[in-house]
Specification:
- By secondary structure, the protein is α/β, with parallel strands linked by helices.
- The chain contains eleven helices and ten strands.
- The radius of gyration is 20 Å and the shape is globular.
- Bound molecules: 5'-O-[(R)-(carboxyoxy)(hydroxy)phosphoryl]adenosine and zinc ion.
- Zinc ion (ZN) binds next to helix 4.
């Protein structure tokens, strides 16, 4: 058994978690998470320096709770998100992890946040008997900053197959939410409004579907929504807004499902992993689940609470990295705000 304590502070969630890796599955032992959504809501988005200040305020009290729940002596290594993310926010988690590893004489495992999102599918679910993904697996990462298809050939072995040419899917949700006056965080608010609308009311473009590759694009869709809203101008009733939200969401889901179908065909993968904050979107979850069923593919969907940022997924990725020997001297670890998975 391997026990990992992990710290996550890449954006607006402060998280500390302890997990055990046992027989290829990750079992949460202790989990602490604090969201800053209420603080950033007033600014209409995440302000990096404010995020860092909030992480700083909470991280040591949170660590002290974690260490009273779990004896540090039982922990094999400390994992931490080193990127991608907001530099001032990342720094708080990384410096805390370095100090803990150094003082506790533990190895330090730097983790890519996107890899963490993928490893959310390895976290055991007490209410289901689903098994962890098998390789090769296709991962669709859809978060606030990234949208990409990644072929996972083994633990820590990734190959990027395609990515967005412009906005990330989550970013498009956030921007359209702003246009509709829904505020921050955009994705969940827009998704909620979409449940009240007619997805066929407006026909927004589905870019790149026939590009012959696995590249994605969401900026044309976003601009098309902007023009539609301008042309509706004074007729923007609550129902019209809900129809726009539903039609926009339908376009994003169609693009992602169609490209995932192509990616499964190209790779022949029999395991599909959905990762990143947009994995919380119910419509996307259902549509990819239906695609997987029709294609004879096993669909690995993180539990809802592990779709959004959390430290348990970082501990999960860190555990597999640790057993593969990817540790560093705590004094040599630094943040990388632009880190990518490959
Ligand atoms: O992974 P995440 O929590 O942070 C990053 O690593 O970026 O993803 C956040 C993104 C945001 O863009 C947010 O609007 C989007 O995920 N998101 C959603 C939903 N919940 C969060 N997008 C669509 N529908 C949702 N239910
Ligand atoms: Zn994330």
């Amino acid at each position: 058994m391997t026990r990992i304590l992990a710290i996550e502070s890449s954006c607006d969630e402060t998280g500390i978690a302890v997990v055990d890796l046992l027989n290829g599955a990750v079992h949460p032992v202790a989990e602490f998470l604090r969201s800053q959504i209420d603080i950033h809501e007033a600014y209409g988005g995440v302000v990096p320096e404010v995020a860092a200040r909030e992480h700083l305020e909470i991280i040591l009290p949170m660590l002290s709770h974690a260490l009273s729940a779990v004896d540090l002596a039982s922990v094999d290594a400390i994992a931490v998100t080193r990127g991608p993310g907001l530099a001032p926010a990342l720094r708080v988690g990384v410096e805390t992890a370095k100090a803990l590893a150094y003082a506790g004489n533990k190895p330090l495992v730097p983790v890519c946040h996107l890899e963490g999102h993928i490893y959310a599918s390895w976290i055991s679910n007490p209410s289901s008997v689903s098994l962890p993904p098998e390789f090769p697996a296709l991962a669709l990462i859809v978060s606030g900053g990234h949208s990409e298809f990644v072929l996972m050939k083994g633990h820590g072995k990734f190959e990027r197959l395609g990515e967005t040419l412009d906005d990330a899917a989550g970013e498009a949700f956030d921007k359209v939410s702003k246009m509709l006056g829904l505020g921050y965080p955009g994705g969940p608010k827009l998704a909620q409004l979409a449940t009240l609308g007619n997805r066929f009311a407006y026909s927004f473009p589905r870019s790149m579907l026939d590009s012959g590759d696995l590249m994605l694009s969401f900026s044309g869709l976003k601009t098309s929504v902007l023009y539609q809203l301008r042309s509706l101008d004074s007729n923007l009733t609550d129902q019209v807004k809900a129809d726009v939200a539903a039609s926009f969401q339908a376009a994003v889901v169609d693009i992602l499902v169609s490209k995932t179908r192509q990616a499964l065909a190209v790779t022949g993968c029999k395991h599909l992993i959905l990762a990143g904050g947009v994995a919380a979107n119910e419509s996307l979850r259902q549509s990819l689940s239906a695609l997987s069923h029709d294609s004879g593919v096993t669909f690995h969907l993180p539990q809802f609470k592990y779709s959004l940022d959390n430290a348990t997924m970082i501990a999960a990725a860190g555990a597999f990295r640790f057993i593969a020997g990817h540790t560093v001297d705590p004094r040599d670890c630094s943040i990388d705000p632009n880190l990518d998975i490959v």
